[in-house]
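check this one:
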Amino acid sequence: MDLDNRLENVTIIGAAGKMGSGIAVLIGQEIAKLKIKTPDKTYKLNLIDTNEKALNGLYAYIKSQFVKVAEKSIVSLRSMYQERADLVENKDIIDAFVEDALGAIRFGNNLEMANNSRLVFEAIIENEDVKISLLKKLNQICSKDAFFFTNTSSIPISFLDKNVGLDGRIIGYHFYNPPVVQKLLEVISGDTTLPEIKDTAKELGERLRKKLLPANDIAGFIGNGYFMRDGLYGIEEVNNLKSSHTFSESIYMINRVTQDFLIRPMGIFQLIDYVGIEVFQWILLVMNKHLKDVTLHNKLIDLMVEKKVLGGQNSDGSQKNGFFSYKKNKMIGVYDIEKGEYMPIEEKWKENMDGKLGSLPAGFATWKSLLSAEDKDNLLKTYFNNLKSDNTLGAKTAKKYLERSKEIGKELVKTKVAFSDEDVNTVLTNGFFWLYGPINSYI
């Protein structure tokens, strides 16, 4: 069965979540294109979620995204709709595309909707017991030729296949957040993954214009294999600072080092907040279990979850409070774990903390300004050469962080999680929007 046939009936589980909704937009636009080419065929995109409130808001989000897709693709859409004499103005074409895309969608919370689907995307929480239970139910409902694409970011595919009994009809298809924007797509095959599903995954990824990157079937894969260890090192550095600074001060300082001194899009604790502290814990639990590595556990993360300080994002994309508190996605406070409340990031306090870290090395430029710089590589080399010779607390901490980052990246290649240094760097520069990969010659 070719991809076009499979796209006639598709189901997305967890469709109202931030990952599922993005996947829904991507698949929905591909189905709409097929509807335009073959209007006599019937297409279904089943969007299933247990959160009815979020499901109710999903329609408006998807419609707005389809409008954006149509506006950006107006030239190609005009060609696709050339047989429609009634479509004259751009607005007519945009409206027609949105109508075709929305016309295929069915919303609901009943798994039985997936019974005739040939392609099923799973995008629920990163909990292997919950995923296995769901996939078992779907295996009973769906036909025996259905393919399952799981958006897991850490659970081994072979483990899922063995525990569900899918006979190789499952593949890891790890979109990065947000799926509509992010180009990177980590693809993970298990020991028994069928060649046919690999071919389907490759063709679909190419149609979606994603950068497909293979990872070996080892818990955490490349992205979280790196991120978990990077985050744990950040916590380790907080503990090193706590002998002479408060918890709040240490969190702020390490976050600033990892953002400004390392020229990343956000600091490590802001990133953990963005992903979600509880999600971070779930992934650690998965990796700890499958890799039998006791270092993949952290008492601070457990304590934050116990205190219900969870981070993550609201349905409208706004940031929930975690290590930091936020207003309009801007950090305005830092968590005081002893008091169980947020300490405001006031200008005088901030100046004091920044003073302890010391001035940024000569040649510093923000991540945003370097993102589009033509001579980005040379500017980074100059900056990091200057960082090497600085002896401020910020520079010394940043140098240690660069060394540890490189170690983590090299270890992923050594343990065969990643196929090459380049693959590790590709994940971090594409999936995490870094300006440079962790395996570099800067330090």
